[in-house]
Design a protein that fits this description.
- By secondary structure, the chain is an all-alpha fold.
- It has one domain: ABC transporter involved in vitamin B12 uptake, BtuC (Orthogonal Bundle).
- The protein contains 15 helices and 2 strands.
- The protein has a two-stranded antiparallel ribbon with strand order 1-2.
- A hairpin with a 2-residue loop joins strand 1 and strand 2.
- Helix 4 crosses helix 14, helix 9 packs antiparallel against helix 12 and helix 13 runs parallel beside helix 15.
- It is globular and about 65 Å long.
């Protein structure tokens, strides 16, 4: 089966895209108010440019629920899932390690610390992503500065710097929680961010994160050939004409920017950037022109499914669902495909 998929990747991509659309439409039916799949389908298409004239205009509570409440949340889930998956794919390619993830350089810990500071000083909900983004990006820049050795980015030093910043930012976050007021709501806001949630997503977040996702994924995809050559080692890649330092800096910074943007809006949603690239690699192989779009589609589908389950279970943080679903599936993939990971 995998050989057939690898020979006809476009057909497989088409299947994944159709599956993503089905998951989106189905997810929009789930909630405290039951809405049929057919009605959701008609409502969404009636608001879609170029095809809206073929469908009647809907008014009333069902349209409000689908368009203003559920659809922004679902689309943000697609954007975040795809971005984290591609970010993980790039990180794993640069580090030549299937255990690398978008948060390896301290993005998540920095974003969490920024959110905790924002919540502690009492900023509004709408300004919280700005605090988180600045802290996440600042952490990554500091890690990059620490990881530069004699004008070059040393991977081992970069990893150690990322590990150190993860511990430091997590420690600061825990300290803020320790000295914070005892009110339950305060701690719930921090916990919601630390576990990751799509609850309360709005169209403005979709409009801001979508171009970041498109540009970021396009930039990672543009370096598909270089990422393939990186698997042979930096020296071999350099001999084959790859600008190693430039490629590392662009890829690492782009991946971190993708992760930092998504963390700012949804909090820390783990496992997507670790598992989805690996699952995609087991199916389509290590060639990045196939691997990157497959990871993006896998990530979007997976996160929307996890968020749908979180709503069915009473709005538990989606980050908990990704771990509970992802870990057993990841172990299954590893046991089923031992020795055939493409690395």
């Amino acid at each position: 089966m995998r050989d057939k998929i690898r020979k006809k990747p476009k057909l497989f991509f088409s299947f994944l895209f159709i599956l993503l659309l089905i998951v989106i439409f189905y997810s929009a039916t789930v909630g405290t108010v039951d809405i049929t799949f057919q009605r959701v389908f008609a409502i969404i298409l009636s608001e879609t440019p170029l095809v809206e004239r073929w469908f009647p205009t809907f008014e009333g509570p069902h349209r409000t629920i689908v368009i203003n409440l559920r659809l922004p949340r679902i689309l943000l889930g697609v954007i975040v899932g795809s971005s984290l998956a591609v970010s993980g794919t790039s990180m794993q390619g640069i580090f030549k390690n299937p255990l690398a993830s978008p948060f390896i350089l301290g993005v998540s810990a920095g974003g969490g610390m920024g959110a905790a500071v924002g919540i502690y000083i009492g900023i509004s909900y709408y300004l919280l992503p700005i605090f988180s983004f600045i802290a996440a990006l600042g952490t990554v820049i500091l890690v990059f500065a620490l990881g530069r050795v004699r004008g070059k980015t040393d991977i081992a030093t970069l990893l150690l710097a990322g590990l150190a910043m993860n511990f430091l930012m997590s420690g600061l976050t825990n300290y803020i929680r320790y000295i914070s007021p005892p009110e339950k709501e305060f701690h719930l806001r921090i916990l919601a961010f630390m576990f990751g949630t799509l609850n309360g997503s709005i169209w403005r977040e979709v409009h801001f994160s979508l171009p970041v996702m498109v540009i970021g994924i396009a930039l990672v995809f543009a370096y598909s050939k270089e990422l393939n050559l990186f698997q042979m080692g930096e020296e071999s890649a350099m001999q084959l004409g790859v600008e190693v330092e430039k490629t590392k800096m662009i890829q690492l910074f782009t991946s971190s920017l993708l992760a930092a943007t998504m963390v700012a809006f949804t909090g820390i949603i783990g496992f997507v950037g670790l598992m989805m690239p690996h699952a995609a690699r087991l199916i389509v192989g290590p060639e990045h022109k196939k691997l990157i779009p497959t990871s993006a589609l896998f990530g979007g589908i997976f996160l929307v499914i996890c968020d749908t389950i979180s709503r069915m279970m009473g709005e538990i943080p989606v980050g908990i669902v990704t771990v509970l679903l992802g870990s057993p599936f990841f172990i299954y993939l590893l046991l089923r495909n031992r020795g055939d990971t493409g690395w």
